[in-house]
């Protein structure tokens, strides 16, 4: 289980996240929703270790990783797909995927060919540079790069943003397949689309002004509309 307890995060002297507590259970998809700029991506960056915690703690399978490095957290099983993809544009698709394997704490680093069942276009384009792919293909590559290490906890920061509907459907299918095939893997998903979140999510948190304003196993639009752009 991934557990955040009373998390407080600041940029310089400006507090962005205040008293945030949430949990992500194995085999579940947890959705984090809210308007732009309320702190959702800050929470994700804090979990992976890119931002430091001012107060509170992050527990990963019972271990306190609050002060651990991003590399340590990745090797403990956290995969991260950032908003904006952040693929390496001058490396090939294959080389981008190999970098994803750096999170594996094993000597053998080999791409599981079954990964291409999710993303057949990446197999066709494995020798093409990442920067030459379309936006949707780059998003598929970012997701594949995180999945290649078989993470226990997958953090997805707005994976459907700016991609065409057919790619959105493919991403939805991947999320549902990961949940179906493994009772040990868990996903924390930042998403703007309520419809998409409802399709894939098991539990929901809504963030407003750096705090959890709503949580539950369903989204009641009458209760959340004040916190979302609906």
From TrEMBL:
ABC transporter domain segment(s): 2-230
Classification via InterPro entries: AAA+_ATPase (IPR003593), ABC_transporter-like_ATP-bd (IPR003439), ABC_transptr_urea_ATP-bd_UrtE (IPR017780), BCAA_Transport_ATP-bd_LivF (IPR052156), P-loop_NTPase (IPR027417)
Alphabetical GO biological process terms: L-amino acid transport
Superkingdom assignment: Bacteria
GO molecular function: ATP binding; ATP hydrolysis activity; branched-chain amino acid transmembrane transporter activity
SMART domains: AAA
Keyword annotations from UniProtKB, A to Z: Amino-acid transport, ATP-binding, Nucleotide-binding, Transport
CDD domains: ABC_TM1139_LivF_branched (cd03224)
Coiled-coil stretches noted in the UniProt entry, renumbered to this chain: none
Pfam families: ABC_tran
Protein family per UniProt: Belongs to the ABC transporter superfamily.
Identification of the protein by name: ABC transporter (ATP-binding protein)
The organism's taxonomic lineage, starting at the top: Bacteria, Bacillati, Bacillota, Bacilli, Bacillales
């Amino acid at each position: 289980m991934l557990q955040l307890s009373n998390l407080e995060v600041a940029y310089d002297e400006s507090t962005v996240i205040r008293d945030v507590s949430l949990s992500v259970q194995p085999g579940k998809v947890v959705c984090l929703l809210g308007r732009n700029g309320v702190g959702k991506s800050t929470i994700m960056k804090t979990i992976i270790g890119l931002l430091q915690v001012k107060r509170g703690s992050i527990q990963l399978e019972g271990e306190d990783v609050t002060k651990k490095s991003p590399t340590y957290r990745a090797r403990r099983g956290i995969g991260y797909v950032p908003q904006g993809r952040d693929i390496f544009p001058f490396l090939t698709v294959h080389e981008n995927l190999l970098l994803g394997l750096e999170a594996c704490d094993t000597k053998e680093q080999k791409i599981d060919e079954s990964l291409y069942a999710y993303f057949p276009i990446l197999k066709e384009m494995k020798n093409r540079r990442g920067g030459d792919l379309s936006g949707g293909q780059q998003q598929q590559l970012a997701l594949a790069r995180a999945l290649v290490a078989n993470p226990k906890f997958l953090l997805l920061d707005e994976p459907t943003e700016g991609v065409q509907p057919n790619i959105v459907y493919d991403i939805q299918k991947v999320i549902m397949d990961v949940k179906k095939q493994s009772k040990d893997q868990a996903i924390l998903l930042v998403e703007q689309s309520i419809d998409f979140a409802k399709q894939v999510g098991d539990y929901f948190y809504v963030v407003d002004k750096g705090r959890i304003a709503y949580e539950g196993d369903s989204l009641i639009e009458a209760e959340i509309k004040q916190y979302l752009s609906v």
